[in-house]
Amino acid sequence: PLKAKTASELKHNIILHEPATLTGFLEKFNEYMHVVAGDREAIKRIAYEFVEDKAKEGVIYVEVRYSPHLLA
Question: How far is CA 63 from the centre of its chain?
Fold first, then answer.
């Protein structure tokens, strides 16, 4: 389960509010990664919606990075 009770609380928890180190940035993934890891449909939905959002924003090229070992 997620620590956050609402979508806005989750958003607040995963956004950096001040400059941080790489470690500080990566720690944000701990907030939700355990929920999607191993869930093929969730991963597909995240990827699809990311591309869909970028298309709506007019982006014609984007590179996405995934960490397969975190998603397995």
Answer: 14
Q: Which two tokens stand for residue 29?
A: 């993934």
One-letter amino acid at 41 equals: E
CA distance 55 to 49: 10
Could you state, in order of their start, the residue ranges of all structural domains in the chain? Answer: 1-31, 38-72
- Model pTM above 0.85: no
pLDDT tens-place string over residues 23-51: 999 999 999 999 999 999 999 999 999 99
- Dump the DSSP string for 2-29: -S-SSHHHHHHHHS-SS---HHHHHHGG
- Which H or E element spans position 44? helix 40-56
What is the pLDDT of the chain when averaged over all its residues? 93
Cβ partners under 8 Å of residue 37, min gap 6 = 70, 71, 72
